[in-house]
């Protein structure tokens, strides 16, 4: 059983002047229990539409989703989810601590549990110092961190996070990545959307790439990075003289054969890989050209 399963999900919005927007087209994917799955796509690709559909905020035109084997449409299945919406906004007249209390009540936690968990998540998200100030005075990054704090409050098994690093400075981004890694260590499942490839490389086990409402690729981060080997940086020494050479992938065999017959010694070989950004740009630009 998967933590999250999305089956042939489609969503058609009626936009301005009743213009149809096919935001999702036959999108299927599964998120395995215990993994960190990055949902990567450019602006307008359909990431938030997917997430809002899973969380029951919008109705799909077709298809369905399940959470730990139960229909996502049942509110009881969503009790196991910690959800961070895109651009979270809260009752600004409440303090951070009061807001967490309110969230705890909606999850039917008892008062001592709420107090204990609130202290824990406030500390994790470095918000303890601001806990008794009204949210109105929080910076954008603090609001985002409070968004993650409220998602963690009831210690859910699955996290669905829409752009969790958005609006955060480098320190905040590093903090959230560390939290995601720790949640994985605790056996939690994390599904998060982003358009920033560097976020994926550091924390994800697998990545799904979405463009124009369609899922273009799903693979492990490891496979993607391995498959992107374009050539080799080779250091050779000859009579005490060291040289750095860049050899194309398809020239390696030939190059090594030549080396054997020469008096050069290989000191180091390092594969030169396309990074996640190049892989992502390739996929997205292919989709752009095929649509033209
Ligand atoms: N309520 C709506 N009415 C009409 N069109 C919509 C609505 N919400 C989203 N869309 C359109 O659906 C498509 C997918 O939007 P969505 O917000 O899901 O993308 P996204 O990948 O989350 O983008 P971003 O990274 O910019 O947040 C876009 O073309 C968007 O304009």
From TrEMBL:
PROSITE patterns: ABC_TRANSPORTER_2. The keyword Transport applies. GO terms for molecular function: ATP binding. Gene3D superfamilies: P-loop containing nucleotide triphosphate hydrolases. It holds the Pfam family ABC_tran. Keywords: ATP-binding, Nucleotide-binding, Transport. InterPro entries: AAA+_ATPase, ABC_transporter-like_ATP-bd, ABC_Transporter_VariousFunc, P-loop_NTPase. CDD domains: ABC_DR_subfamily_A. Residues 4-237 form the ABC transporter domain. This is ABC transporter ATP-binding protein. It comes from Geomobilimonas luticola.
């Amino acid at each position: 059983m998967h933590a999250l399963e999305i089956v042939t999900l489609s969503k058609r919005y009626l936009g301005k002047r009743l213009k149809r927007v096919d935001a999702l087209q036959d999108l299927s994917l599964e998120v395995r229990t215990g993994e960190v799955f990055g949902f990567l796509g450019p602006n307008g690709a359909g990431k938030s539409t997917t997430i809002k559909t899973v969380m029951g905020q919008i109705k799909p035109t077709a298809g369905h989703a399940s959470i730990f084997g139960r229909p996502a449409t049942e509110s009881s299945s969503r009790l196991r989810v910690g959800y961070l919406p895109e651009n979270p906004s809260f009752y600004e007249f409440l303090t951070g601590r009061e807001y967490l209390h309110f969230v705890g009540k909606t999850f039917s936690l008892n008062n001592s549990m709420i107090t204990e968990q609130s202290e824990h998540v406030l500390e994790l998200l470095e918000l303890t110092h601001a806990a008794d100030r009204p949210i109105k005075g929080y910076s954008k990054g603090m609001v985002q961190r409070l968004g993650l704090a409220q998602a963690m409050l009831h210690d859910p098994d699955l996290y669905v996070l829409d752009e969790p690093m958005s609006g955060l400075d480098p320190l905040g981004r590093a903090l959230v990545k560390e939290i995601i890694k720790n949640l994985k260590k605790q056996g939690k499942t994390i599904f998060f959307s982003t358009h920033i490839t560097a976020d994926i490389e550091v924390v994800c086990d697998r990545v799904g790439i979405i463009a124009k409402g369609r899922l273009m690729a799903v693979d492990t981060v490891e496979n993607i990075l391995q498959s992107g080997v374009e050539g080799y940086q080779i250091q050779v020494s000859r009579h005490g003289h060291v040289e750095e050479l860049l050899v194309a992938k398809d020239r390696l065999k030939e190059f090594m054969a030549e080396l054997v017959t020469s008096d050069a010694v290989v000191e180091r070989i390092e594969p030169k890989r396309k990074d996640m950004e190049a892989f992502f740009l390739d996929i997205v630009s292919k989709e752009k050209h095929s649509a033209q």
